[in-house]
Specification:
- By secondary structure, this protein is of the alpha+beta class.
- Helices cover 38% and strands 10% of the residues.
């Protein structure tokens, strides 16, 4: 599945070029908290179209990367819950896949609604094949293309958190530590 998905992969999709070719752990995280009114509109759109909010955000970022980087095949990284059966879903602990590539083909013949549906299908497809080790895919692509590039430079994650304010006194927030 993955080797076929990346059969025509050419190069890393990034927003700015690197000054060095060295590998670094340096990164930045940008957290956005949406106003409630916008959040409700997004939830309504996704419910009407039968797609997840995450698919909507991936579609928007993919379109943006297409415009600013000129890429027709956008590859983003993400993490998935990596809980594929009932036993895993009921087990405490960290199961997240550390690197799952999402290969999003930009299709100019589609309207936005259809594009979001395509992204949703691509995301579900990646979800079904998430157990394949990223390192093995990366090794295959590097050997095939005679390159040392990674498959993606941008990782998109989505956290939808809700608190039942009746259970807690005071103000609480949810935050991912990067």
């Amino acid at each position: 599945y993955w080797e076929e998905k990346f059969e025509n992969w050419q190069e890393l999709c990034t927003l700015k070029s690197r000054k060095t070719s060295g590998i670094s752990s340096r990164a930045k995280r940008r957290t956005l908290v949406l106003p409630q009114k916008l959040s409700l509109k997004i939830h309504e759109y996704c419910r009407e179209k039968g797609v997840s909010e995450f698919s909507l955000f991936i579609a928007a970022v993919s379109m943006y990367l297409n415009r600013v980087a000129g890429k027709e095949d956008v590859v983003l990284g993400t993490t998935l819950l990596n809980r594929t059966n009932a036993a895993e879903k009921n087990t405490a602990g960290m199961f997240a896949s550390l690197a799952v590539p999402l290969c999003i083909p930009i299709r100019y013949d589609m309207n936005f609604d259809n594009f979001v549906e395509l992204v949703s299908k691509e995301t579900l497809s990646a979800l079904r094949h998430q157990k394949y080790p990223y390192e093995m895919l990366l090794r295959h692509i590097r050997e095939k293309n005679k390159s040392s590039d990674n498959l993606f430079d941008i990782v998109l994650t989505y956290q939808n958190s809700k608190f039942d304010k009746g259970l807690f006194s005071g103000n609480y927030i949810s935050r991912w530590h990067f």
